[in-house]
């Protein structure tokens, strides 16, 4: 089949100064084409807090040159013979999140090593596959190899198994940030919150009291999805009062401004079943937050700070059999479930849309914490 004339160009980060708004628009090599791949003409890409950590090599040396962006939506312009077997067709509108591939229990000659005993991939936990490939700056484990390049670009090439059809009634600018931020909130809500796995998705959190700390991209999705999953009460925690009206409009029942309200940690101690913490800095009162949990409650860390480690009082955990846990993105079955729930319940994240050409200035605003609540860039 003749294919679209794809020219791979995008915002390339050459070194850590890229995080200050120094990405350069230029051509780059995508991964080598394989018949399990699709090419996507990107229409939308969200700006995730992770893009900043990676651009500045916050978690260790990033594999420059790299194109970041892992909340992309676009139209398929080329579909490999094997890719077509997943059901994806030319012209489909699909989304790709922060995971581009997993071993999927493949063996040589498809992959260099034998992965047939991968527990994560054989149990629907592909995001925890030890040989997974992130959407940018990572190596593919197939024999063709290559490096992943993300969504601040015109096109994206990826294995079809990690591209997901977007339901028709979900706008692309809303679906894009769901692919990472939305999923990162949705997955632990279902996993840790659900005492009712047999119930329909919209009743999974019935009767539970859920806290969300940090009202940014991931945090605002946590409020939206906690409500959509039937939580009895959602309490939003943010440093300042300025996000109060927005958080309540998103569905939070209560709002606490931790840097301004007095005595919140004492007044709310022992009140929550599950807390999702999205804070991107290690500079936070973790022990006070954990004390907000009831007996047997779970504190799930989602934010991945690059400015230091946490200090925590062990007694705050042990004395009430509380759990300190974490969660990473989500797996393909959860992506499908999330997109369906979002379509059924007409979930609308708060996004601010900018042209892709303004990526450098958008990054600077993101760094300053100005996003309300997700920047989404659009190719024209
Ligand atoms: N686990 C995963 O799979 C996963 C997936 C996606 C992202 N992440 C990570 O999650 C974090 C959040 O990502 P995001 O895209 O939601 O970012 P974001 O929109 O910037 O939100 C982060 C929130 O953290 C709080 N915050 C920021 N700087 C802070 C500081 N210095 N001290 C205390 N609080 C601070 C703010 O909340 P308030 O203004 O409300 O106080 C801010 O809204 C990042 O570390 C990102 O890498 C993890
Ligand atoms: Zn992300
Ligand atoms: Zn695997």
Task: Provide a descriptive summary of the structure in words.
Helix 3 (172-193) crosses helix 4 and helix 3 (172-193) crosses helix 9. The longest helix is centred in the middle third of the chain and has 22 residues, at 172-193. Strands 3, 4, 5, 8, 9, 16 and 17 form a 7-stranded mixed sheet that branches. The protein has a 6-stranded parallel sheet with strand order 12-11-10-13-14-15. Strands 1-2 form a two-stranded antiparallel ribbon. Helices cover 23% and strands 23% of the residues. The chain is built from 10 helices and 17 strands. The protein has helices at residues 49-55, 119-122, 172-193, 217-228, 244-250, 264-267, 286-291, 314-318, 332-344, 359-367, and strands at residues 9-12, 24-27, 37-46, 72-79, 93-96, 99-101, 133-134, 155-159, 164-165, 209-213, 233-238, 254-257, 272-277, 293-301, 323-326, 351-355, 374-378. The chain is globular, with a radius of gyration of 20 Å. With 380 residues, the chain is an alpha/beta fold. Helix 10 (359-367) links the parallel strand 16 (351-355) and strand 17. The mean pLDDT is 96. 50% of the residues are buried. It folds into 2 domains: 9-171 and 348-378, Alpha-Beta Complex (Quinone Oxidoreductase, Chain A, domain 1), CATH 3.90.180.10; 181-326, Rossmann fold (3-Layer(aba) Sandwich), CATH 3.40.50. The protein binds NADP nicotinamide-adenine-dinucleotide phosphate and zinc ion (2 copies). The site of NADP nicotinamide-adenine-dinucleotide phosphate has 30 residues, from helix 1, helix 3 and helix 4. One of its GO terms (molecular function) is zinc ion binding. This is Zinc-binding dehydrogenase.
């Amino acid at each position: 089949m003749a294919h679209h004339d794809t020219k791979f160009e995008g915002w390339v980060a050459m070194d850590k100064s890229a995080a200050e708004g120094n990405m350069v628009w230029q051509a780059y090599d995508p991964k080598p084409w394989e018949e399990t791949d699709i090419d996507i003409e990107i229409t939308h890409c969200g700006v995730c807090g992770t893009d900043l950590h990676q651009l500045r090599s916050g978690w260790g040396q990033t594999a420059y040159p790299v194109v970041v962006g892992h909340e992309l939506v676009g139209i398929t312009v080329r579909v490999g013979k094997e890719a077509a077997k997943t059901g994806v067709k030319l012209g489909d509108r699909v989304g790709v999140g922060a995971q581009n591939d997993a071993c999927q229990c493949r063996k040589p000659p498809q992959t260099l090593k034998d992965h047939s005993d991968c527990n994560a991939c054989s149990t629907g936990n592909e995001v925890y596959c030890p040989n997974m490939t992130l959407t940018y700056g990572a190596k593919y484990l197939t024999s063709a190899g290559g490096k992943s390049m993300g969504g601040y670009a015109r096109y994206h090439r990826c294995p079809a198994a990690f591209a997901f059809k977007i339901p028709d009634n979900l706008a692309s600018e809303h679906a894009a940030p769901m692919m990472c931020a939305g999923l990162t909130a949705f997955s632990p809500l279902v996993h840790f919150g659900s005492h009712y796995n047999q119930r329909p998705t919209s009743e999974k959190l019935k009767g539970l009291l859920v806290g969300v700390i940090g009202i940014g991209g991931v945090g605002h999705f946590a409020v939206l999805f906690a409500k959509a999953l039937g939580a009895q009460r959602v309490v939003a925690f943010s440093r300042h009062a300025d996000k109060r009206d927005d958080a309540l409009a998103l569905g939070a029942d209560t709002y606490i401004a931790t840097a301004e309200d007095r005595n919140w940690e004492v007044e709310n101690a022992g009140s929550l079943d599950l807390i999702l913490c999205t804070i991107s800095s290690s500079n936070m009162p973790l022990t006070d937050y954990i004390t907000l949990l009831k007996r047997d409650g779970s504190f799930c860390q989602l934010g991945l700070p690059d400015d230091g480690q946490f200090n925590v009082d062990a007694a705050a955990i042990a004395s009430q059999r509380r759990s300190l846990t974490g969660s990473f993105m989500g797996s393909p079955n959860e992506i499908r479930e999330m997109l369906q729930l979002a379509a059924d319940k007409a979930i609308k994240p708060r996004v601010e849309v900018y042209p892709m050409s303004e990526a450098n200035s958008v990054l600077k605003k993101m760094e300053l914490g100005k996003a309300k609540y997700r920047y989404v860039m659009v190719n024209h």
